[in-house]
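Minutes, project check-in
Item: structure for the 426-residue chain
Input as provided by the requester:
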Amino acid sequence: MLNVLIKNAKVYHNNALEQADMLVLNGTVSSIGAGIAASENVPVVDGQGLFILPGFADVHVHLREPGFFYKETIHTGTQAAAKGGFTLVCSMPNLNPVPDNAENMALQQEIINRDAVIKVLPYASITKGEKGAELVNFEELYDKCFAFSDDGKGVQKDEMMLTAMEKAKALGKPVVAHCEDESLLFGGYIHDGEYARLHGHRGISSESEWKQVERDIELVRKTGVQYHVCHISTKETVDLVRKAKAEGLPVSCETAPHYLAFCDMDLEEHGRWKMNPPIRSAADRDALIKGVQDGTIEVIATDHAPHSEEEKSRGLEKSNMGVVGIETSFAAMNTYMVKRGYITMEKLAEIMSINPRTKFGLPAGITVGEKADFVVVDPDKEFVVDSRDFVSKGKFTPFLGKTLYGDVLLTVYDGEAVYNKFEEVK
């Protein structure tokens, strides 16, 4: 168990950042305050210029196991998450076998119990095999999963989504939706915008996302289910969620760092720029930034989606959808959102640490007397993204070669250091 005294850091405590010392003894947060004296045999770290934030939480990652271990494993994925400052991730269900029954859920949970270095909460699928034809047995699965999602695909049938929401509501479980109307895709694979027109690519319309969000919000009005929209990318979706929240509906959403950092005119002819939904226009990006600022978007998630080199080296048209992001998420958000003055470090802690937990009824924050769960970061450390340094098996990121600011120095989960760059901390 961890023993350390971190002096003169900025600690996120009681919903605010304060200059303070933090003492951890035997893996438990012993005290937070000014002038804490060092105990015998407890390593002391100079925290001047550093931040101590609650461990980051990502409600949208693809750990690829079981079924696709060549892309990622629960072990490599959670190691990568720890390096990125995360102490909790939620594993999406597009696996083989799909976690659509108790037996398949147990198979995934067995690997999590054996190999994960941080907390992993698995999703169950909404439909059997994520094929959209038949609903899973919600009663069989609700106590074994974080939430229900068919991530990777939208539920196309209105009546099926309505029934799914009714069942989830009765069991007290959220529905987490990948919103994509397949009738509006027209074979597209990047945003239907200026870059697609200039380079002869087929575009994915914004309507394919927001029309299904619109449908689902109407179903939330009927059911009252807790509803969370995955990886939103369009200005229309931001507006729909904003209005739903103003109406008092139990609706929330997430976006990812790459949608806040880039627009479609930043694209290059490489698979590392291909994900679903796609990076959209500058107007969409600006609307997402405003949505983060005003609280419409309460959660940042990475949609960490590793693929093999062969799967991502076939250009924009033919590469698989999905990019990695769990090792660069903090630095990307710090660089593109905090350093540019869009949000404060307190806000970053809320959307990367606190809200992803509290929105789903999980404990959050750094609490004296509780097991240590936090990350220590240097917000000013500059580096150039080199995917060869990634712990993840996935190496394809739109941030490749970009200069980012922000280094994770120590990640502590359940009282243990799961990632550590401090020589004095053993």
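Outcome recorded: The mean pLDDT is 97.
No further action items on this chain.
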